[in-house]
Design brief:
Blueprint lengths: L10 E4 L17 E4 L6 E3 L14 H24 L2 E6 L3 E6 L5 E8 L2 E6 L2 H14 L10 E3 L2 E4 L1
Parallel strand pairs: 6-8, 7-9
Antiparallel strand pairs: 1-2, 2-3, 4-7, 5-6
Helix pairs in contact: 1-2
């Protein structure tokens, strides 16, 4: 079977030139706009710790959201296939990023904390299906840090 590929294209425009470009570290804004055809724009910036705008999404939050959303979408799929009926799914993921002395850094861990409500199927199966979702998640398979899932299963 031929390898199937999917391609994604975005437009990221820096909007933070205050008139002098990057003439100094404090002389420019970190604001940018993420856009794609047919979708609402996303207002982005850096984390406030790095002179960013707290009212805009930063790359670290978007990465955390991507990990969580991908897991959720695969989880819903594997539950549907297994006959487990999910009626509600809420996650409050947390990520940890460590900085090095030179200012670089990387995520060291993400913890997903989904609270899943099911109306059909048993809680043990619903819990075990998180491992299947994790194995299939495109984003989890693309990152170099551990992702833990601390799920709670509730019956409707």
């Amino acid at each position: 079977m031929a390898k199937q590929e999917h391609h994604y294209k975005l437009h990221i425009a820096w909007t933070g030139n205050s008139g002098t470009g990057t003439s100094g570290y404090r002389d420019y804004d970190r604001s940018h706009v993420i856009s794609a055809a047919g979708k609402p724009d996303i207002a982005g910036s850096s984390d406030p710790a790095f002179r960013g705008d707290a009212g805009r999404w930063n790359p670290e939050e978007l990465l955390l959201a991507s990990v969580s959303a991908c897991h959720k979408l695969w989880y819903l799929h594997v539950c549907a296939v297994a006959g487990v009926v999910v009626t509600d799914y809420v996650d409050e993921p947390e990520g940890t990023m460590a900085l090095t002395a030179d200012g670089a850094g990387q995520f060291t861990e993400v913890v997903l904390k989904p609270v899943v409500t099911i109306s059909k199927g048993d809680a043990q199966t619903a819990q075990e299906l998180h491992a299947d979702a994790h194995e299939k998640c495109f984003i989890a398979n693309s990152v170099n840090f551990p992702i833990r899932v601390e799920a709670q299963i509730r019956s409707a």
